[in-house]
Design a protein that fits this description.
GO molecular function: ATP binding; UDP-N-acetylmuramoylalanine-D-glutamate ligase activity
CATH topology of the largest domain: UDP-N-acetylmuramoyl-L-alanine:D-glutamate ligase
Number of domains: 3
Domain Mur ligase central: 110-288
Pfam families: Mur_ligase_C (PF02875), Mur_ligase_M (PF08245), MurD-like_N (PF21799)
Strand content: 15-25%
Protein name: UDP-N-acetylmuramoylalanine--D-glutamate ligase
Largest sheet: 6 strands, parallel
Number of helices: 17
Distance between the termini: 61 Å
Radius of gyration: 23 Å
CATH class of the largest domain: Alpha Beta
Helix content: 25-40%
Strand order of the largest sheet: 7-8-6-9-10-11
Number of strands: 20
Pathway: Cell wall biogenesis; peptidoglycan biosynthesis
Length: 447
């Protein structure tokens, strides 16, 4: 090992701080630079580890002298500093790529435009129940790099966003799961869908015939892409429409999982997670568990007693006959499509935020069928009005969660369900989708 290799970490969030800790543990000189302000929690951690850092700026004389740069997934490749590093042929990698160099653990990696967090947490729940020494990492849980530095897990369940996949070169998933691909983050991919598809398919790069690829057979984008590329990996598809000889299927309201290790049947109504999208999530997790050799009883128990994910179709209280559902994690059209599709009652829909190139026409049929009124929650609601003015009689603009919840409650009038499913990013009015969901909960409690 070249201990003189000089590593710079760009970004001091969970990913960056974890990468810095791992770099230091391997004997590398490391420096952390964040253009924004570092939160007090991460400042404290960096100081505890005696890792030098800066905030509020990028000192190029230090950064451009690096042997290798580990960048936060939030920093785009088009950023001027990244372009300078590329021009100087200084390698720029992701925290996931760096962590993978120092772990022999089995990596089960999950991506997709929607459903990846639920599937990741469900699979983690399953592995823990099976007694496997497993870590939860990536886009959920703690950074993979820090856990590699501080723990000796035999397995990791890793949720990967397209941004994290973009910085991976040699990293390999032992089991790769691709839930679906729908338009998302296109502003990051030159508004070219093919670029986004290529990013998602990086999850199977470097896989061999000894590895597994679990994917949704019902997703046309995935199946078309697989027809055009050559892969050596073992394929495990899942479908709610086709009976498959291998993978997971749905037949007569029964979930069927088949592969070399297992033949498992389970009634769909025994699944703890309801709705079509959650059947997909359960299928993917069940297949992964079977590949890992987890016993049928444990897979079945895990799929039936998992509690779900906060901010994802999370049922809150009933206030004077009005149910409130927190789906703040729905930051794109496809997530909101699934939310609306799962609604049984007339719905007052709270929508809006930072638009990522949304085409609201994809929701039109569901909105006509299920939505009583729309409450817009954002600084710029013009695209929502363009789509639904004249379609939905009542459309109200609000610019705070307090106003949105009060307005929706009044419109519901004891007869409808209020659904927060924004279909947009949160950064115009909130710190994150978690902050948005938490404020929703707090305002509902005040009613």
């Amino acid at each position: 090992m070249d201990s003189q290799k000089n590593i710079v970490v760009l970004g001091a969030g969970e990913s960056g701080v974890g990468a810095a800790i791992l770099a230091q543990s391997k004997g590398f000189p490391v420096f952390v630079s964040d253009k924004g302000q570092i939160t007090s929690n991460y400042c404290k951690i960096l100081k505890e580890y005696n890792i030098p850092f800066e905030e509020g700026k990028h000192s190029e004389e230090l950064i451009l002298n690096a042997s290798e740069v580990i960048k936060s997934p939030g920093i785009p490749d088009t950023a001027p500093l990244i372009k300078k590093l590329n021009d100087l042929n200084i390698p720029v990698i992701s925290e996931i790529e760096f962590a993978g160099r120092y772990s022999n653990a089995k990596m089960i990696c999950i991506t997709g435009s929607n459903g990846k967090t639920t599937t990741t947490l469900l699979l983690y729940h399953m592995l823990k129940k099976a007694g496997i020494h497993v870590g939860l990492a990536g886009n959920v849980g703690h950074s993979l790099a820090r856990q590699v530095a501080e723990n000796d897990f035999s397995h990791f369940v890793v949720e990967l966003s397209s941004f994290q996949l973009d910085g991976m070169k040699q990293f390999k998933a032992d089991i790769a799961i691709l839930m679906n691909i729908t338009p998302d983050h296109l502003d990051r991919y030159d508004y070219k869908m093919k670029n986004y598809i290529d990013s998602k398919f990086r999850i199977i790069q470097n896989q061999t015939e000894n590895d597994a690829f679990i994917f949704c057979q019902d997703d046309e984008i995935i199946t078309k892409e697989l027809e055009q590329i050559s892969v050596q990996v073992q394929k495990h598809p899942f479908s709610i429409y086709e009976c498959l000889p291998k993978g997971a299927s749905l037949k007569n309201d029964e979930l069927i999982i088949k592969n070399e290790n297992i033949n498992l049947n389970m009634k769909q109504n025994e699944l703890s997670l309801k709705g079509k999208h959650n059947t997909y999530n359960s299928m993917a997790a069940g297949i992964a568990g079977s590949i890992l050799g987890i016993r049928n009883e444990v897979i079945r128990e895990s799929l039936s007693d998992f509690k779900g994910v906060e901010h994802r179709l999370e049922k809150l209280s009933n206030v004077n006959g009005v149910d409130f559902i927190n789906d703040s994690k729905a930051t794109n059209i496809n997530s909101t499509w699934y939310a609306l599709e799962s609604m049984d009652d007339e719905t007052v829909w709270i929508v809006g935020g930072v638009d990522k190139g949304n085409d609201y026409n994809e929701l039109m049929d569901l909105v006509k069928e299920k939505v009583k009124a729309i409450v817009c929650l954002g600084i710029d609601n013009s695209k929502i009005h363009q789509a639904f003015d004249g379609v939905i009689e009542t459309i109200v603009d609000t610019n705070s969660m307090q106003d949105a919840v009060k307005t929706a409650f009044e419109i519901a009038n004891g007869e409808a369900t209020v659904l927060l499913s924004p279909a947009c990013a949160s950064f115009d009015l909130f710190k994150s989708y978690e902050d948005r969901g938490q404020q929703f909960k707090e305002e509902v409690l005040k009613l």
